[in-house]
Design a protein that fits this description.
Layout (H helix, E strand, L loop, with lengths): L2 H22 L5 E7 L2 E6 L5 E5 H9 L4 H16 L2
Antiparallel strand pairs: 1-2, 2-3
Length: 85
């Protein structure tokens, strides 16, 4: 496996495995997390709503240190009204 393949694997592993438990510390009603097409999607139980974030934005967060707090701030700024319905 070359370096870019390992980095890509690490990026997708972070999004699909690590973030779910990290985000559940902030949002108790996460149903599932998936990567679909070019978006990172989070489904919530309380209103069956989906929040999607472009993969290039997720890649920036990953490259800058995988900050869960940065991602939570992004979700809060852009989508909190939809989550709280």
């Amino acid at each position: 496996m070359n370096v870019s393949s390992m980095d890509r694997y690490g990026f997708y592993h972070w999004m699909q495995r690590e973030l779910e438990s990290d985000l559940k510390q902030f949002y108790k009603k996460i149903h599932s997390i998936k990567v679909l097409d070019d978006e990172f999607c989070i489904w919530f139980i309380n209103n069956e709503d989906c929040v999607s974030i472009p993969l290039n934005t997720m890649r920036n967060i990953y490259v800058n240190g995988k900050s869960t707090e940065e991602l939570v701030a992004l979700i809060d700024r852009k989508y909190i009204a939809r989550i709280k319905k």
